[in-house]
Target: DnaJ-class molecular chaperone
Amino acid sequence: MKAANSRRSWRHATAETNPQSEARRCDHPGCDQTAEHRAPRSRDQLDEYYWFCLDHVRAYNSSWDYYAGMPPEAIEAELRRDSTWQRPTWPLGRQGANRRFSFVLDDPFDLFEEAEAEAQTRKARAAATPEDEAMKVLELLPPLTAEGLKARYKALVKRHHPDANGGDKDAEERFKQINQAYHILKTSLDA
Model:
C-alpha cells in the first residue's frame, strides 16, 4: 500500500519541492516583484515577451502602440489585412460574386430532373429585355446580324401580311408585333 502523499505528478520533481525557484521576476528595471503577466517585446516579435508584475504591465500596455513608426500606407495595409484575419481574399464583381458555378452531377436515377425543369421554366418566365422579346417574336437566335434580321423580317412579313391572309385579325396582330420587334432590333443594331 502506497502512502497518501506519494501521488504522481506531471510536473518536474524540482518544481514540486521548490515552487519559488521557477517564479519570474518583473522585467521592469528596479522591480523585484513576481512577474505573472506577459507583454510582446515589439511589433516584429509578437511571440517574444517581457514579463511584468500587474502594475508594470498596465503601464507598459497603456504606452505601447503597435502602429508606432509605421507610415500611413503601411497602417492602412495592416488594417485591411486584419479585417480578413490576414487571410487572402478574392475580388467580387464580374469575376467573383456574379459568377455562376455549374456543377455536373451524375444523376442515374433522374432525381434532379424535376428541379432542372422547374429552373428552366423560371428562367423562361424571367423578365427579359425588349431585345430578347423581339428576338422571340422574330424567332431568331443570337448572334444577330443586320442581314439575318432583314431576311427574317421579310420572310415573316410575307407570311403574316393582312392582305396575304384575307384580312385575318390574328394575322394583323402578328404583323404588328413583327414590325415592332423589327424596329426594336434594328435600333439596337444601329446603336
Summary: Residues 21-86 form one domain. Confidence is low (pLDDT under 50) at residues 1-6, 13-21. The beta strands are 37-42, 45-52. The helical segments are 13-17, 54-63, 72-83, 113-125, 130-137, 146-160, 169-190.
